[in-house]
Amino acid sequence: MIYIPIGIRHDVKEHIIIAQKRYPGTAEDALISFLVDTTNSPHDRSDVAIWTLGQIRSKKALPILKKLYKNDPKGKTCHAKHDLVLCQKELYEAIDCIEHNYGFGLPLPVGTQ
Q1: Dihedral in degrees, nearest 10, Cα atoms 72, 35, 8, 20
Q2: Could you tell me the pTM of the whole model?
């Protein structure tokens, strides 16, 4: 049995709700729309969309995440600049979770598909 911290499940659900309030479609589609909409701050795009897409292992988002990633797994280029640029460490971790099928791989919460 895999232990998934309650806080992680709650955060995934909350981020999906945030995205679905602004964008139509499935949870995955709403999160992708949130990510690509540059009117959202880089911080919010990293926190709400990138992190959550990694947690749900979104294969659909993988090409978009890879396009935004600048080969900086430690996030040196974005350190203390999250209001200006997407978090490269978060992108790296999301891509890694999706490609290697690990992380929490949470099912989408009921009612968000």
Answers
A1: 180
A2: 0.83
The 10s digit of each residue's pLDDT in 6-48 is: 556 788 889 999 999 999 999 999 999 999 999 999 999 999 9
What is the spatial distance between Cα 36 and Cα 34, in angstroms, rounded to a whole number? 6
Please check whether residue 20 is in contact with residue 109, taking contact to mean a CB–CB distance below 8 angstroms.
no
* Residue 53, phi then psi, degrees to nearest 5: -60, -35
Give the SS3 label for residue 13: helix
pLDDT in tens, 70-85: 998 888 888 888 788 9
